[in-house]
Design goal:
The complex is a heterodimer of chains A (182) and B (167). Chain A is an all-alpha fold. Chain A has one domain. Chain A contains 8 helices and no strands. The longest helix of chain A has 36 residues. In chain A, 46% of the residues are buried. Chain B has 167 residues and is an all-alpha fold. In chain B, 75% of the residues lie in helices and 0% in strands. The chains are: A mainly alpha (182), B mainly alpha (167). Chains A and B meet through α1, α2, α5, α6 and α7 of A and α1, α2, α3, α6 and α7 of B.
Chain lengths: 182, 167
């Protein structure tokens, strides 16, 4: 991240210097404003979904989901403690059902529950790769955007999307299982 | 169909909690309390990333990177019109949706490019954004391998997407 952050700044600032130096500061301010708006938006969804997640955990529903999904998740990620497994089950279910807003807080909870010494472990990496290669089955936002733009077949992209994201997820998990040490 | 999922799930949850006589109100508020601290924690990480993305867009660096990467793209059968989408998709959700709309108006929503772009946007995730909130904001360092694996797998997914749209 440090390298990416530095390279990103150096390369873009060099270009901006020779084109229009005044946009450097405006870009930075605009981006920070966007970030504040995004964080506010996230906060709004966090409030509701963290509340719901607490209900799911405290009523032992998460424990039931965890017991149900444990065999599959252990097969993919390796052994994980029970509390982390609850959060992982919630994150995976929310992703698959397309409740993307709920999957992010559950995912953060899962990672922080697995975190022991601030090092990215094998199960954490596999969990991240699963999330980062999209577990969502139906790309609802893309479909509605296609409808707005007058597509004659807005739903035609569902099956290719499922195949492409499945290929990416399976490949990512396999690479992580082979190349990441325990 | 999908519009029924959230209300149905919530209905099921509240019925279940009601039958168990759970103090749902207290639970909800207890969980919701975590929202502001969580947002405050992730805010600086999101800002750092969005600044670099904004600088990348406004400096026009994409066109410079495109010169180097377009041979790679054509080698794998990715249409050149999708370069911006593939480049920015891992960083920003809203930004890549703006690029997707641009592709729709330039090439047409049902064109080969339009369909490829839809599948790419629908089958991939904001990898770097997720890494910044899952790893960085939780104090976890050295996750370069995780980023590399996610990026390579997503790229293969994009190649598959472009291949599938030919049929």
């Amino acid at each position: 991240m440090n390298i990416l952050f530095s390279l990103g700044f150096i390369a873009t600032l060099l270009l901006i210097l020779f084109q229009s130096p005044e946009i450097a500061l405006t870009s930075i301010i605009t981006a920070s404003e966007k970030s504040l708006q995004l964080s506010l938006k996230m906060c709004v969804t966090f409030v509701f979904w963290l509340g719901i997640i607490e209900i799911i955990s405290k009523t032992k529903l998460a424990e039931k989901m965890q017991r149900f999904l444990r065999p599959v998740i252990t097969f993919i990620m390796g052994d994980v403690d029970e509390k982390s497994m609850e959060h992982i089950s919630l994150n995976v279910s929310a992703n698959i059902l397309g409740v993307g807003n709920a999957s992010t807080p559950a995912g953060i909870n899962a990672i922080s529950s697995m975190n022991k010494n601030n090092l990215a472990t094998k199960p954490m990496i596999i969990f991240f790769v699963m999330n980062a290669t999209s577990l969502q089955m139906i790309p609802t936002s893309v479909i509605s955007l296609r409808q707005i733009h007058g597509s004659v077949a807005p739903y035609d992209i569902i099956i290719p999307s499922i195949i492409a994201s499945t290929v990416a997820t399976v490949l990512g998990v396999v690479i992580a299982r082979i190349f990441i040490k325990d | 169909m999908s519009k029924y999922i959230i209300p149905l799930l919530l209905l099921f949850l509240f019925l279940y909690a009601f039958m168990k006589k759970a103090p749902v109100y207290e639970y909800f508020v207890e969980g919701a309390k975590g929202a502001i601290p969580l947002s405050v924690t992730i805010f600086p990480y999101v800002t750092a990333m969005l600044i670099v993305v904004e600088l990348m867009i406004n400096s026009g660096i994409a066109t410079h990177i495109e010169v180097f990467l377009s041979p790679v793209f054509s080698l794998f059968g990715i249409p050149s019109g999708l370069f911006q989408l593939v480049l920015f998709r891992p960083f920003t959700g809203s930004g890549s949706f703006a690029i997707l709309e641009n592709i729709f108006t330039t090439f047409g929503v049902d064109s080969y490019e339009g369909r490829c772009a839809s599948v790419i946007a629908g089958s991939s995730e904001t990898i770097f954004y997720l890494a910044s909130i899952y790893f960085s904001s939780q104090g976890i360092k050295k996750f370069g391998k995780a980023l590399a694996i996610a990026t390579i797998s997503t790229f293969v997914g994009i190649i598959v997407a472009c291949l599938l749209c030919r049929f």
